[in-house]
Design brief:
Layout: E1 2-19, E2 22-24, E3 31-32, E4 36-38, E5 57-60, H1 67-70, E6 74-87, E7 91-104, H2 110-123, E8 126-129, H3 133-137
Parallel strand pairs: 7-8
Antiparallel strand pairs: 1-2, 1-6, 2-3, 4-7, 5-7, 6-7
Amino acid sequence: MRAPDLIEPVAAFRNWRLVEGVLWSPYSPVAWSEPVMCARCLAVPHRAPAPDCDCGLSAYLEPQTRFPTVDFRGVTGIVTLWGHVEVHAEHVRAEYARIAALAVYQRWSARQRTAVEAVAARLGADLVDLHEQAEAAELYGGTLAAPVAA
């Protein structure tokens, strides 16, 4: 389902891997080294996301609290999305995304927490508790619901 260009940003949830002080997508070799990302299709030149392509900046509709507890480099957080948006059953793909907040996990080592705090400071992102992401997301934008199957 394709949503129209959004006037107000929406909040969603994203996973990354923290490698040498840089957030990386866990599914493709894309570094999130800036606070705002613009999707580009690497396969075919078109505006991302496109209905028949996997391009676009992906985020989940629900917080991902398990990822950073099982992947020692895993970080999750809140992104705001806008522009062209495609909504799917459990995730959304967008044209633009901004890292709004990174979640910290109580059981991380001091080293991991310090590394995430440094990335958040460099990107101008807030820090939120891993288990309080849903409540915190309300501060950054509206929410999207999964499309209803016909």
